[in-house]
Design goal:
This protein is of the alpha+beta class. It contains four helices and ten strands.
Length: about 200
């Protein structure tokens, strides 16, 4: 079973992440940040990674620490669950349309973290959620998940749609990258022999 449970507790947040990479996209996410929960639900549903996240944080300050630290813990859970990466496809990509927005994601489960972020949110807020935190989440996920992650906005004018398209595009790309390659299920997808 490719599963993991990560608990991360700091002076700012207390987070538990449980995932199953071979799930069906069931989710149960409660972070205290409504829009972020909605995005995490999309990430789970469209990657088919079962996900249960519980987070309490210093929301009286703002949402930043909670969003970033969930990204850290989720990245750590992905690394733990995927193990030595034997048999995975490794690469994934998706062009995701959502109404006015289209976002492209290409990623590599390379163990070489890097984020390329070409996304511009037209507004500073989606409801009470700071739109700059979308990038913060993906930066934390890429860094702690060892993911080379490229996210490019093709177009879009609605911040909610752009953010949601980004989460769904990453989810769909992750789904592909995490799948077992039936032609090479016994090998790590690298000429180096390890990732």
């Amino acid at each position: 079973m490719r599963t993991a449970k990560i608990t991360r507790k700091t002076a700012e947040t207390d987070i538990t992440v449980e995932i199953n990479l071979d799930g069906s996209g069931t989710y149960d996410n409660e972070t205290g940040v409504g829009f972020f929960d909605h995005m995490l639900d999309q990430l789970s549903r469209h990657s088919l990674v079962d996900m249960k996240i519980r987070a309490t944080g210093d929301l009286h300050i703002d949402d930043h620490h909670t969003v970033e630290d969930v990204g850290i813990a989720l990245g750590q859970a992905l690394v733990a669950a995927v193990g030595d990466k034997k048999g995975i496809r490794r690469y994934g990509e998706c062009h995701l349309p959502m109404d006015d927005a289209q976002v492209r994601c290409a990623l590599d489960l390379s163990a070489r973290p890097f984020l390329v972020w070409n996304v511009e949110m037209p507004t500073a807020k989606i409801g009470s959620f700071d739109t700059e935190l979308v990038r913060e989440f993906f930066q934390a996920l890429a860094t702690h998940g060892g993911i080379t992650l490229h996210i490019d906005q093709i177009h879009g004018f609605n911040s909610h749609h752009i953010a949601e398209a980004a989460f769904k595009a990453v989810a769909r790309a992750l789904r592909i990258a995490l799948e077992t390659d039936p032609r090479k299920s016994d090998a790590v997808p690298s000429t180096k022999g390890m990732l």
